[in-house]
Design a protein that fits this description.
Blueprint lengths: L17 H8 L2 H9 L1 H21 L4 H8 L3 H9 L5 H10 L6 E6 L2 E6 L4
Antiparallel strand pairs: 1-2
Helix pairs in contact: 4-5
Length: about 120
């Protein structure tokens, strides 16, 4: 399978993209690009950390309220908001607990757009 062969089915929601990612990383020019973009991704991760708390505050919720919805204690929500990486399912649960209306991750690879609906993650 090559990166060009991977196309999620419309309406299928979240799909396991492991094969697609592995195919992309097998292409040297893409692997080099990904490595070159590492500093930008790290900066985005730092912004992401701030944004989880921003989303919660926009929803006018406290960490205690998010924790109660998730069945966590407040310290777990504090840690969650401070992490620099999350599993998509964890992110989706947090966003759902915050009352987010729509959540998706969108990436573009060589002009091809992929959108993954986090609501079905």
């Amino acid at each position: 399978m090559t990166a060009k062969d991977y196309t999620p089915q419309p309406g299928s929601g979240f799909v396991d993209g492991t094969d697609a990612v592995e195919a992309l990383l097998a292409e040297p020019e893409i692997a080099e690009f990904i490595e070159a973009e590492r500093p930008a991704r790290e900066a985005m991760n730092r912004a992401f950390q701030m944004n989880l708390a921003t989303i919660r505050k926009a929803a006018e919720l406290t960490q205690a309220e998010i924790a109660a919805t998730l069945g966590y204690d407040v310290s777990a929500v504090t840690k969650l908001e401070g992490r620099d990486n999350l599993m998509l399912t964890t992110l989706a649960k947090y966003l759902n607990a915050a009352g987010v209306d729509t959540a998706a991750i969108v990436v573009t690879v060589k002009g091809q757009r992929f959108e993954f609906d986090l609501e079905s993650a």
